[in-house]
Amino acid sequence: MLCPAHLPKKWLREIAETAPDSFAVQVKTAAELEKAYEMFLQHKQNCYVVITKEKARDGYMRRPAVTYNRRKHAFLCPDCGEPVMMDIFDEGIRCKTEADQFFFQKENKKNHKCKNCGSPLWTVLETERQSRWVKIANYGFVYRALVQEYLSLIGKKVMLKSARSKKAPVFPKEYYEIKAIADNPNIAVKPIGARPQCSLSTYVSKKMRGRIDGLIIDELQDYNNNSGQGDAMNDLLGCAKRAVGLTGTLINGYSQGIFYLLYRVSPRLMQTDGKKYTATTNFNREYGVTETAYEVSDQGYHSNRRTAKRKLREKQLPGVSPLVYSRFLMNNAVFLSLNDMGKQLPEYEEIPVELQLPEEVWKEYTHIEDKFTDVMKYQKLIAQRVMSAFMSLLTVYPDQPYDMEPVLDPISEMPLVQPLDRWDADSLNAKDVWLLEKVKEKIARHERVVIYTSWVRIDTQERLEKLFREHGISACVLRSTVPTAKREEWIEKQVKNGVHVLITNPQLLETGLDLNDFTTLIYYNISYKLFTLRQSSRRSWRINQKAPRIEVYFLYFKGVMQHRAIRLMASKLAVAGVIEGNLTDEGLAAMSECQDLTTLLAQELTLGLKNETDGLDIGDVFKNMAFLKPEGEAAPEVIEGEAELVESEAIEVTVEELLAEK
């Protein structure tokens, strides 16, 4: 059983409750895996071994293998000896230059292999030997001989941030760790997290091939990239006689998002179709949507030459051909929804809530929006580089119209726009007032509420927690500092302690966890990640849910970026339903929009397109996707009174405990 880090306990519990004549253990090392196999041989029972995807992947830590040549002023490939090159942008023009030390700060697909000979540029980090590269926690690798340049770069960023905020400079922890290396270049630094062991997936593929009867892969969509976790899953897949992959979001909207999954699950079909593992471009062109930009120069008058046409760039857009299903998935996939399980499910409805911005905030928002439009139209050199910053500001400013940082020109580093403070942290906006009333209403009905805040760089979570406590409502914030494997236990403890409101980022709860104690989910704001929204909104709508109805609310201000985003999200959600066989007019129409959400929003503003929200009832779109029971049908019986947590005994079985029991 291969699963994310926060789900082993849940799988152990489910197997213990539902699988007869079986036992399950969580394995973290190769030694524990061998002990579990010995137990399987000694006892006539099925053995389920639960491995997290991180443990399956983690092995030796890797460091850069390149060396610096002072004569060439470049880092050289360890095999061919040629300088390693990187792409940079100079006044909006892409060009190549020798890679600097910051290029190797963290391993990624750009610095993984030499473009000249294809050899890996990273090697094993030996924990007992010191190298020229030093791993700094939460920062990356630094090169000992050029350590002063790291200090200079960090110092400039700190001083620039201090000048903007008009506060004293605060240097991060890694600055002092790097400074210690600068003071003593030969100092011994032990890398945190490095361990001398091979990964579990590698061990299984080499030592246990043929002994694995089956593999269950939970959250299959996590392995859709050319990544270490995907390679680890592929190793285990090759050792198992049978395999089942489980996912609620098979495709992320792009054809490349399923390419690696298909090659790992059905390599023979991909090869029969003529698709090579190293040629994703051919697959994307046939089964995806590819935008190709050309530069065409017309021939002159009475000119003898032909019109010149030069290819500039190629970009993949959202969209997957239906042929993917007929050629690769038809005989290998089963599409199930909760409705198909034959269980009595509660009603489920998503409800958008439109609110008004104060006049002074609306005027400043309009000023920022106009400036963004001008930049996108008339400053082409920086338009794409500042689009993300502007989109983020336009999205969060209505929620926090104070203490917002300016958007800077990437060339001159001068402010393009400086948002003015039109509110303060102690004032309540329309979202806060509506939210407070709704939470009081739900608590009066003995229900609990989850509040999702997607934009964590603003103070929404702290402000809402303070607001609820001032009104005598028990609330808590689930932050990313809570370890992934302990989040389910942490939530159960908070419910037991009487918490009625849980505030968190939806990305922390998007997979695996069941929130049956919470029957109302409210999105204070949403991000532009469709699948995060889709997964997190269904955390309470489960087969074992006893409540008669689950409600999900989306709060947004009318006429601003949030309004456009919620309308586009509604259409994209309808598309996801079309793929699963749930047809709606909105979903079929939105299938023709082959662009990502951020680009669509930016184009609406830049090109001055008519705001489609004027003629579209967003509530009707969500209503068509709701799961509502026919009138007169009996709802599940609900016991009136204060909700109580039925605490299940914590299940964390180790190999040693099972051996002692046997």
Tell how many strands the DSSP assignment holds.
23
Biggest sheet: strands side by side, in what order? 16-23-22-19-21-20
The total tally of domains equals 4
Instruction: Based on the coordinates given, report the CATH architecture of the largest domain.
Output: 3-Layer(aba) Sandwich
Average pLDDT number: 81
Largest sheet: 6 strands, parallel
Number of helices: 22
What percentage of amino acids are in beta strands?
15-25%
Molecular shape: globular
Q: Structural class of the secondary structure composition?
A: alpha/beta
Radius of gyration: 28 Å
Find the CATH topology of the largest domain.
Rossmann fold
CATH class of the largest domain: Alpha Beta
Termini Cα gap:
22 Å
Spans of 5+ residues with little confidence (pLDDT < 50)?
578-594, 609-615, 634-655
Observed structural traits:
662 residues; alpha/beta; Rossmann fold; 4 domains; six-stranded parallel β-sheet; three-stranded parallel β-sheet; 22 helices; 23 strands; 36% helix; globular
Model description:
α7 (228-239) packs parallel to α8. The protein has a six-stranded parallel β-sheet, with helices on both faces. The chain has four domains: 2-58 and 197-289 and 324-338, 3-Layer(aba) Sandwich (Rossmann fold); 62-183, no CATH class; 340-356 and 429-624, 3-Layer(aba) Sandwich (Rossmann fold); 359-417, no CATH class. The chain contains 22 helices and 23 strands. By secondary structure, it is α/β, with parallel strands linked by helices. Helices cover 36% and strands 19% of the residues. Residues 578-594, 609-615 and 634-655 have low confidence and may be disordered.
